[in-house]
Amino acid sequence: MSDRRIAFTIDGRKIEARAGQTVLEAAEEAGVYVPRLCWMKGLTPAGACRVCTVRVNGRPQSACTQPAAPGMIVENDTEELRELRRDVIDMLFVEGNHFCMFCEKSGACELQALAYRFGIAAPKYPFMFPRRELDASHPDIFIDRNRCILCGRCVRASQELDGKHVFDFVGRGRDKRIAVDAEAGLGDTDCAATDRAIDACPTGSLLRKRVGFAVPVGRREFDRQPIGSDIERPAAAE
Amino acid sequence: MSPESAAFVTGVCEALDNDPTRLLDILLEVEAQFGHVGGEVMDLIAETLKVPRVQVEGVVSFYAFLHSEPRGKVVIRLCNDVIDRLRGADRVAEALEDELGIHFGETTPDGLFSLEHASCIGMTDQSPAALVNDVVVPSLGSSKARRGIQVLKEKGDFDELQKLLIRDHGDGNNAHPLVRSAVRNNLRQPGAVIFGPKTKPGAALERALAMSPAEVIRELKTARLRGRGGAGFPTGMKWEFTRAAGGDERYLICNADEGEPGTFKDRVILTERPDLVFEGMTVGGYALGARQGILYLRGEYAYLRPLLEHVLEERRASGLLGHDIQGKPGFDFDIRIQMGAGAYICGEETALISSMEGKRGDPKTRPPFPAQEGYLGKPTSVNNVETLCCVARILEMGSGWFSSMGTPASTGTKLLSISGDCSRHGIYEVPFGITLREVLEMCFADEPFAVQIGGPSGQMVGMEAFDRKICFDDLATGGALMILGAGRNVVEIAAEQLRFFVHESCGYCTPCRVGNVLLLERLEQILAGNGEAADLDYLEQLARSVKTTSRCGLGQSSPRPVLSTLENFREEYEKLLIEPVDGQLASFDINTALGPAKALTGRDSVHFEQQGGER
Amino acid sequence: MAKAKVATTSLCGCFGCHMSLLDIDERILELIELVDFDRSPINDFKEIQGPVDIGLIEGGCANEENVKVLQEFRRHCKVLISVGDCAINGGIPAMRNMVPLAECYEEAFLKGPTVVNPSGKVPDDEEIPLLLDKVYPAHEVVKMDYHLPGCPPSADTLWAALTALLTGKPVDLPYELVKYD
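YS: structure for the whole thing
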């Protein structure tokens, strides 16, 4: 074993990380799924959604921003953390207007898939039913802020993958919302249907027009298997 | 936009080298000139600084002192924190609304007056208080408010607001020609460290410059100085980390964004001991190897800026700032003042740094910590105003002198900002280790029933805690003590504090953005008589989730009003609960639910009789 | 052994969840071996007759009558189940929650394109139940014991949940059966 490897444990399982890796990345490489929502491969982690909250040596941390360090003891799949993650997911559901029954993203939505994975039949908090703006000004793309969970993946993807700055946050606290780089709306920006920022949206908030519902029910990404199943592998024999 | 206005905007940008990291300063100047930062102006600033427009909009929409829509020539911001409300801010609000014929959040049709609420303007010792543009109007009763509006309407000359509104100047430097404010210091008990006899500017620096930077840091460690903002991190260690981070550029930031409701000690320090603050900063510059210090001054204290700038000029003139300070070759250090713009979150050190970089005041991801990568990516130490004063005094008087005060783990003195139900509000400098009971006697507390320690992010304790000690390992606090007398409704106060956090949450992370709204909603239901026993468990669980999963200190402490009152005053909640029958939920109130339809149809319910609020 | 009593109702729903229940096809023969129906659109009883073991609630509460029926169900049912998205989150009817109630009334009775209303007033007829300020999910009005999401929940989901309850087993549905669409 090379001494450049960083050895730590997650739920007692031995993990080896490379220098510079976060807990989430190292876990993923080792076949351990840490539930996440605002994290996306290739983007600077934000630590915003808090779904990936783990305990590192007892302290709560977001796994997506926590650098792996030697000897760390990480808790991930514990009853306490499952409960906390359920709470965070519940909060995201009641904060927006998530009408899954007619959403194009249903079946491939990461928020919905996490709720499925955590066995949520109904959120424990009352719904807020906020009034949110739509933006259909772009010929090929629309924004439905009812479904926005403020993860900021489009904000980062536009800058880091598309080399643009189409999206950003405005407002504060409960009034925080996603905005675009033009007063008149998305149609006035340099956003293109090919932008990777569109694919970065984990929910149905940012979608291409005229291509919805292409995959039949039953064959969509999360119809059969919980989110994270592609990452999880049993621990290698000691 | 007129060509003159455009020239003004580009001129402001130009004066700050079109530097996007100075966006907040630019926006504050533009707002001061036009009263708001409109869409066209945002476009122009974005173009001039070569940043995306949405980024400018993001910053404008983040800060309470920046507006995208025009407002009145005179903006009255009435403080609505807990203490102000306990002391009659609501009656003042009614008087203002009545006199102006508008509600809060509105502007009079003639465009002259706007009414707004402010979270806390650091005047709880002379509450209710308001900011009228940047003039502080303390001790504002409803008749005084009416008279003030009448005077303003009659004279109509708003350039002289200060003259119109202020009859008598406060004590000490509040009467200084550069301040001329009606604010009073209410310095009730000076202690040996901060408010001891004034010393000659440069005294501490002289001692420090005779040592090596490492020795200065060692002196702070020997004194066992801990940060005065509340968290109590050892200052020497913080500076050591920052110095060890390497690179050739480092920054020292003095956090004067005192925003915790009920805290006003920094206001008095900055009014009466600005030299001591700058002295401590300069010592810090030497110890850290920083060439620049920045004092981040909360927008609410803008009235102190001319005095502070003046003191900085004096220090430059006497060779206490600038090049080769006090003849020490190569020791260059200067201080600039960065204005805040009305965001409590910016008191959190990484949010403060974001704000100074011209961004939204979002806390940053940690690690890296500011000591490694802070302001502009360089190692940075952020220290509290009071802490830096202690630094100066430790250097001047020696660590032994300092650590002889207080307790072994909490050395020195602490400034307490005392407000609420007591007859002597104000600042008390006390040695650490003093009991709460001693403090309550000192300030003539009026039948104290509960004390909110450390502001909303602290804890509310009852009489059983009165013999506990104020120090880092017992009742740790940044110094705010709000005293609540018998008859105060602690659940209502917890709700008020939640309202503060809901208003001040930056919204970056889910639990703080959403969870606090949910907590407040349920608290309000309980207060309205629509709560049941299960709701207390709901509150407790939700509060724990917010506390555990939030990203920064604000979110982690925001549920404390709920958790500490549930722990210490559970019976006050229980008094409010009802026992619904047949599996119904107390939180569902049929009268509320049917209210609008009854009004719209003009008829009563067939199924549900109005039950007069009682069930 | 006496058969279990089951009652069902559709509050502010589209009866789609009831249709889904009928979609259990021939298993309905098995079901009627296990249960007797109390109040339900299936037998058109308008009132609950007596104590009920399992109540199925489709739809959320949009008006006073929905609340009354839901409270009646809660009073009489040992186990009460929210069936479908409307019961759980208000569903499509809850899309009006983002619109002020006055505008809803205006659209329905005064200004809508198909409205013929010479009186020019919002009707005050007691036959038209008063709307609530918003559409409430069932569990925000009374305590619910189980939730079966879906629009509608599939026949297999309903069957699995019902048979588990009727045979005293835990309602622990497999991944494929808990869906929100």
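YS: worth flagging: Chain B has 25 helices and 14 strands.
IM: good catch. Also The first strand of chain B starts at residue 74 and ends at 79.
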